[in-house]
Design brief:
- The chain is of the alpha+beta class.
- It has helices at 5-18, 24-39, 66-70, 80-88, 97-100, 107-111, 144-205, 211-242, 255-266, 288-305, 348-353, 360-369, and strands at residues 43-50, 55-62, 92-94, 116-123, 126-134, 250-254, 274-277, 283-287, 310-317, 320-327, 374-379, 385-392.
- The protein folds into 3 domains: 2-167, 2-Layer Sandwich (Beta-Lactamase); 171-242, Helix Hairpins; 250-392, Histidine kinase-like ATPase, C-terminal domain (Heat Shock Protein 90, 2-Layer Sandwich), CATH 3.30.565.10.
- The strands form 3 sheets. It has a 5-stranded antiparallel β-sheet with strand order 2-1-5-4-3. A 5-stranded mixed β-sheet has the order 7-9-10-12-11, covered by helices on one side.
Length: 395
């Protein structure tokens, strides 16, 4: 019975550290500190795994600043020890990282890492993150009983992490809903008010205006009506996608001819600044309306927020169709990238350069995912933005 006491005490201490904490960040910081204190670690951290991008997102640290850690690569491919923990679904301990090369080049020397462990945090056999720890550059051993206790604690940490992430997601969704109502009413009210104002002017004072003034008002009336139409279409798309009420009917599409038609209708005066690299025989299998909505959004954004020349290229890679639209602008601010596909979100740069409700990319990505695909963003070096549509080919 005495052998169980240290383990029970560790579990008790971990549970106590989580009591009374509502904020996810504070909760995970306390867990890091508790684990470090229990096992005598010099440094500990908890990171979240984003499977859609294979990126690691730091959530909490102890013994090292978050700023120091965030200077490192967040790509899972650069961290062999994390990949091993993910593949084995088990604790990975490296006694000497210089001998096993589990870290990216230069990290061990720069941060004084010698022995290190990574524990995958599993929820229903799904890895949601990792617990990482070391002795701050000092060598250490990990016996079987300590490893087993870490696995037990890892299950508790995974449960806490999942709860914290769920809480954050609920808070985020509630904020999005509030923003949706506020921004939707604002975006609808603005063109509606302008349309009403112009209509009233034409109705009440039309006879007093000269032809040039009437032409200006008609032009403004058309522009605002078109803006209102586009916004209503986006809101309807969004509600139908959320309700899963959109029927997807995949069919073969000749990509080059379809893209040429979209370019001719969207940016006829900019066609000369587009480089189209698509084989005439290449076909995609997609819902035609969804394909048009996605590609139209990417082409429009390339000119609205980026700079020419614009490159559109498509190809078949293994079992996937890939279409990329690249522009030569300044790209997306790295700090804004995590919110890029969220609805009603716009970067400060986009707010200055063009009108919009911040729905286009969110809807385009939803259309892609409704077909089992995705829409992803990658920066271009030295400058530019690249959006890539990925769709599966049927078996």
């Amino acid at each position: 019975m005495s052998e169980l006491r240290p383990g029970l005490a560790a579990v008790r201490d971990l549970a106590r550290s989580a009591q009374g904490v509502r904020e996810a960040g504070e909760l995970l910081d306390r867990i890091c500190a508790s684990v470090a204190e229990t096992f005598g670690f010099g440094r500990a951290g908890i990171s979240r795994l984003r499977p859609e991008t294979d990126k690691l997102e730091l959530l909490a640290t102890h013994g090292i600043s978050a700023q120091e850690v965030r200077q490192l690569s967040s790509s899972l491919d650069d961290w062999r020890i994390f990949k091993r923990a993910l593949e084995t679904r088990d604790l990975v301990f490296i006694e000497d990282v210089s001998a096993e090369h589990g870290l990216p080049p230069g990290v061990a020397e720069a941060y004084g890492v010698r022995g290190v462990l990574v524990l995958p945090l599993l929820s229903q056999d799904r890895c949601i993150g990792f617990l990482t720890a070391d002795h701050g550059g000092e060598p250490f051993e990990l016996d079987s009983s300590a490893a087993e206790l870490l696995r037990t604690i890892g299950a508790l940490v995974a449960s806490f992490l999942e709860g914290a992430l769920a809480q954050e997601e609920l808070r985020r969704l509630d904020e999005l809903k509030t923003n949706f109502i506020a921004l939707a009413s604002h975006e609808l009210r603005t063109p509606a008010a302008v349309i009403y104002g112009i209509s009233s002017t034409l109705q009440l004072r039309g006879r007093e205006l000269d032809e040039e003034q009437i032409a200006d008002l008609r032009r403004a009336l058309y522009d605002q009506s078109d803006r209102l139409r586009r916004l209503v279409d986006q809101l309807l798309d969004l509600s139908r996608l959320e309700a899963k009420a959109i029927r997807i009917r995949p069919e073969p599409i000749r990509v080059r001819s379809r893209v040429e038609e979209l370019v001719a209708s969207l940016v006829p005066d900019r066609a000369a600044s587009i480089e189209l690299i698509v084989s005439a025989e290449l076909e995609a299998v997609s819902d035609l309306d969804a394909f048009d909505r996605i590609v139209s959004n990417l082409i429009t954004n390339a000119f609205r927020y980026g700079d020419p020349p614009v490159k559109i290229q498509a190809e078949r890679q293994d079992r996937h169709f890939r279409l990329a639209v690249e522009d030569s602008g300044s790209g997306v601010n790295p700090e804004f990238v995590p919110q890029l596909f969220e609805r009603f979100t716009r970067s400060e740069e986009s707010k200055k350069n063009a009108e919009g409700a911040g729905l286009g990319l969110s809807i385009a990505q939803s259309f892609a995912r409704a077909q089992g695909g995705d829409l992803i963003y990658k920066p271009i070096e030295p400058t530019g933005a690249r959006f890539e549509l990925v769709l599966p080919y049927p078996n």
